[in-house]
Amino acid sequence: MAAAAARDRVRYPVNAASKFALCTQCRNHLFPYADFIGHSPPWPGVSQGVACRAAVNVREDDTPRLLHHHRVVNVHCNQCDRHIGERFIEPANVPGLHELQGNYLFHYDKLLYWDGSSLRSSTGEEIIIHENGYLGGAAAPGGL
Ligand SMILES: [Zn+2]
């Protein structure tokens, strides 16, 4: 049930000792840097990926599909349901990455990154969370 999933959501502490990735769309917490494996190079038709050993607050499709000859299941954020990555269900041989079987490959541009001091987009832009919940860039206010 969606209500149970929301109630059981894992939340990482937002402080200097904590580093983790979040969903760009709803800011759901997804995985700590401690579970980070590496970046995949971009594949044809696939954005750069972020590989990690474990994830929280995600939902996986039941039916596998092929991603460049690898059997994967699509992974969705369990709060906003956006498709944010894949999990490899068989041994996968991706250039630069090993031991991907059972692990996740998130789409780099669908994550935000809490680095212990600020929230950043995949392009390194600092994200400011306004009081009204608006998620925007750190643009300087016009005029003084
Ligand atoms: Zn989300």
Automatic annotation (TrEMBL):
Residues 19-115 form the Yippee domain. InterPro entries: Mss4-like_sf (IPR011057), Yippee (IPR034751). This is Yippee domain-containing protein. It comes from Hibiscus sabdariffa (roselle).
